[in-house]
Write a structure and sequence with these properties.
Layout: H1 2-19, H2 33-45, H3 47-64, H4 71-84, H5 96-119, H6 126-156
Helix pairs in contact: 1-3, 2-3, 2-4, 2-5, 2-6, 3-4, 4-5, 5-6
Subcellular location: Cell membrane
Transmembrane segments: 28-46, 95-122, 134-153
InterPro entries: Cell_shape_determin_MreD_prd, Cell_shape_determining_MreD
Length: 159
């Protein structure tokens, strides 16, 4: 039952991210709801859940998007594992948890994506990408992460 619930959450997040959130974009940047779900669930439930949801969310995002296949899968899987390792060291109810975690996760996710793209031979101008994409994405993700983390926290308590 829990597996189906988490799959519904990931699919619903993907649908919202692909349909509603682009309407609230700022300079072509909107929150990465799937990343927020992966980080929150990883911090609350551990690395196994983080890796599983990271893989599923990244795979669905790669399948739904027209970008290079596997970039989102790999980056979200890594993020799920890294933040899942911190599960026992964090205060899960603290309001600063989603703020700090999403700031770090967004930068890590962007860095992983940039490294993969550079390894594939793409040219990236880092300074404009950081100012125009990563910084607004960090701000957007932090704002959205607070209520999403509360929802994921409540769902994680369901037996």
């Amino acid at each position: 039952m829990k597996v189906i619930l988490w799959m519904v959450i990931v699919v619903a997040s993907l649908i919202l991210q692909a349909t509603i959130l682009p309407l609230a974009s700022f300079n072509g940047v909107w929150p990465d709801l799937l990343l927020i779900v992966v980080v929150s669930s990883s911090l609350l439930l551990g690395k196994e859940q983080g890796v599983s949801l990271g893989f599923l969310a990244g795979l669905l995002q790669d399948l739904a998007g027209g970008n290079i296949f596997g970039v989102n899968t790999l980056s979200k899987l890594i993020i799920g594992y890294l933040f899942g390792m911190a599960e026992r060291q964090v205060f899960k109810e603290h309001l600063l948890l989603p703020v700090l975690a999403m700031s770090i996760a967004t930068v890590f996710n962007s860095a992983i994506t940039f490294v993969i793209l550079l390894l594939l031979g793409y040219k990236i101008e880092l300074a404009p990408a950081l100012v125009n994409n990563v910084l607004p994405l960090v701000i957007y993700n932090v704002i959205v992460a607070i209520p999403v983390h509360q929802v994921i926290y409540r769902v994680s308590k369901i037996k």
